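In this supplementary section we document a worked example of the pipeline. Step one takes a protein sequence of length 81 as its only input; no multiple sequence alignment statistics are reported here. Step two produces a three-dimensional model, which step three serialises into structure tokens for compact storage. The input and output of this example are shown verbatim.
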Amino acid sequence: MDGNQEHKNTYVGIDISAKELVVAIGSEGPVWQIVNDEAGVAELIERLRVEEPTLIVMEPTGGYEIPLAAALGLAKFAVAV
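The serialised model returned by step three reads:
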């Protein structure tokens, strides 16, 4: 990024359940659902690469957050659980 580009802070919230992930981009951005499985997480990571989020936030949900948090961390995203 050079001095002429404005830095955007994009925050992502993810609600986690055993079967699905509900993803919100910022407070006014799109919200979508995706299946909480390996293929769904891979698709989510690809979609998030486009957004370049500053931080991804998720609530601990009985362990369902662990595989997602690990996958996001391995993909080099900043994650807060």
